[in-house]
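Work package 3, deliverable 3.1, input record:
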Amino acid sequence: MIWVNDIIQGIMLGGLYALFACGLSLLFGVMKVINLAHGDLAILAGYLAVGVIAVTHIPPVWSFIIVVPLFAALGYLAQRTLIQASLNRGVLTTLLVTFGLSVVIENALQQFFSANAHSLPIGSLVSDSFGIGSQITIAYLDLAIFLVAVIVLLGLQYLLSSSKQGRLIRAVADDREAAQLAGADYRHIFGIAAAIAFATVALAGIAYGMYTSFDPSSGTTALLLLFAFEAVVIGGLGSLWGTLAGGILLGVIQQLGGQINSNDQVLAGQLLFLLVLLVRPQGITSRRRTA
Amino acid sequence: MSEVTATAPAVAAPVRVTRSRRSTVWAAIGAVVVIAVLAYLPYEVYSGTTSLLVNFFILLIMASMWNLLAGYAGLVSVGQQAFIGLGSYFVLIAGLHNIDPFLGLPLAALGSGIAGLVVWWLLSRLRSGYFAIATWVIASICYLVIIRFPALGGGTGESLTGLPNISASLLNAYIYWVALGVTVIMLIAVYALLRGRLGLVLTALRDDETGARSVGVRVSRAQLLVFVVAAIGCGAAGGLELISQPFVQPTAAFSVQWTAEMIFACLIGGIGSIEGPIIGTIVFFVLQQWLSSYGTWYFIVLGAVAIAVAIWAPRGLWGLISERFHIRLFPVGYWLWPAGEQTRPGLSRLPFPRRAGGAGSDT
């Protein structure tokens, strides 16, 4: 029965990874930009939440009400300035710029918040759990994060496929010039896509801050970018529902690997990633070969 | 390249093709003089200075390799620390088997090259950003595998054994000469590669990958060659790093910080020219010596400068210099001279593409 519990824990963990991966998947899908600062942005959101809680004294659980819109605005601004400027120069430049951004964010956080670890204080919620039978225990927090991930990813998938704004985003992603000719301002649409992506990054960062403690270098050392990326590739490019599936699979494999040996948790996930890359580079859910 | 074959038969007058606008004899003489002076240095300066210069050489090798990858083959890797770490550990393993570390160095380079082959086989299907992060994943895997071996020091690290039992200053001088030698070999290798057929292939690939493929350019083979050469270079740099320390700590050996340094040195100097990484490494290294005591502020400024350079001056310092003075110390492209224009200094009337080497930022 112990492995049933592991799989359930893995699914929960996978929800967190999928939430991280959402913004990465979206930015790549729409703008073909791989954001190397993704992990650091999530940590930045965590610190922003720490600051917001300290200033406004709102309960930490509700900090996202302020942080997420702030990050969405930041995403729109970043797209209209830095990312668009680098997009005009080519793929290489977007990678260099986001890499530079990652270094700037990490060191700026260290400068202003010191290298000490922080966490979002959510009191007893961090450990409260309920049991199913004698073997399976589920933490309320993990379940909540998982549900948020499912709602966000499936909700976004639905929005992209059904709403007017979603149609515009998909049109611009498919063919920028044609969409422009048809009257869509692609820079504005890109900005909106970036705002959504940054909003999900903020959610992921806050969730991570409740889940565990973080410090300025966590974006790099906790391998957040890599896990997000692995979830996207395992799930298959260009589909948010695939990203959710990829995140869950990654979480389960990591959890099972960790059961063998705690050092193997990360390695198991990365070997799964390599396996998918070799055997099914289009991802587990995608039918097209687009890698 | 296609321009050359297209226009040459049409122009009746002979078209002279040279490697650069000006003779590069002086650049070659200058390079030899610089190398000679550097080689003589251990007789004149304290070992602290030569140790510093060894770090400089290591960075120079890494930056040149990264430039080859990103600037010429369009392969942005943020996982080159995989090969640096592997290079260090290969020398360590050689030392554990009583092989002289200086002999272990070429073995480490070879081993890293083979590792590069394997990694390329895994990643060659990926493009741009996906390739970038996947290389990082590979580096992370290398780290996670290495720390599983207690014989290699596990997660805490291990000292290199087997360095020759000679006085510290002599050993330092040896390390310095070896580092200088490896650097010169690597730079010449990069230069020779880019001047040869590979340079043309990479240029064609950079300008139009689909077009290059359609006329039969074996794109993936060229990229494979570049990736393996870069792996060899970074492996040698990693081996040098271990010999100069002489201690390896897995977190530091496989740190993404290495890649950050390579990228910054390349960016500052200018991606897509041989001279760029050299100048960039000098500038980066001097800044590092002066400003690293400012810690985080140093990196904040460095990152901001890197962003600004990438967007507004993508050819870096060397790009600014060579545009201004029309010089190229290590030319890898071609200049076409219509008959009668040999002596005219002006550039404006040349109806030909300016040159056919170096990285394009405007593709």
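Residues 35-256 of chain B form one domain.
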